[in-house]
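Entry for N-(5'-phosphopyridoxyl)-D-alanine complex. Fields follow.
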Amino acid sequence: QIVYVNGDYVAAEDAKVSVFDRGFLMADAVYEVTSVIGGKLVDFDGHATRLQRSMSELEMVSPVTMEDLLEIHRQLVARNDLDEGGIYLQITRGAPDSRDFVWPDPDEVKCGIVLFTFEKALVDSKVMDDGIKVISMDDIRWGRRDIKTTQLLYPSFAKMQAKKAGAADAWLVEDGFVTEGTANNAYIVKDGTIITRQLGNDILHGITRAAILRFAKEAQMQVEERPFTIEEAQAADEAFVTSATGFAQPVIDIDGATIGTGKPGSISKRLREIYTEEMT
Ligand code: PDD
């Protein structure tokens, strides 16, 4: 496959990054994952806007313009003949000539940039028929989860714990309330109302979340943005998660408690249908 690294399109096996790259040494990097359906980018503008915000919160200077970035995404889709899947993009604070906790001067050290594509079936997915099980875990991530950084050790650890417990994912809990999933936003449905945590520094502002809530409101569904507990979720009629590469996925079991009938709920299904129709 062809990847993009610091200005060049090269075969993945020929791509090189420095051992001093701060993304590699310190997770001093931000990222985005944009899905591709039928060779088209889904909500590129949403991802580009969030990327710019992540960079500005961390005082990173983008090595490319957003127009360049769109062109690179399109080039990679074309060069890899990608029909359905996604594009991973990472911007790091670059590679100074030594390891130092202090950020390098952006005039001297330019940010690094890497992109690659992956194939994944997004529209026809078996999880839709079955739903997934989740377990709860303490949310011990740092307090700026609204910035999409590559500090993914804890989410990855949490997902491994879920796997060991026979579940597919973990819902993270802080001060008694669910924040989000390891790589998705979390929702419950009770008496027809869709409930999801309000935006803040404690969760990622999902691009799929924004679209799903917009479509839900357009379809006259009730939406409440507020925190909820695991106990409230276990007693809900439905639960689901959203992400760029998962759309809306039903959750049918939380810490061993069956949600609703144990089958994907009708609102979760309907939202996935609307999202797929609108985005493809
Ligand atoms: N994850 N919350 C977290 C912690 C995430 O990592 C993600 C995305 C989301 C959903 O955001 P969006 O709808 O913009 O994809 C919420 C990506 C897909 C990943 O890490 O692969």
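NOTE: The domain at 2-119 is CATH 3.30.470.10 (D-amino Acid Aminotransferase; Chain A, domain 1).
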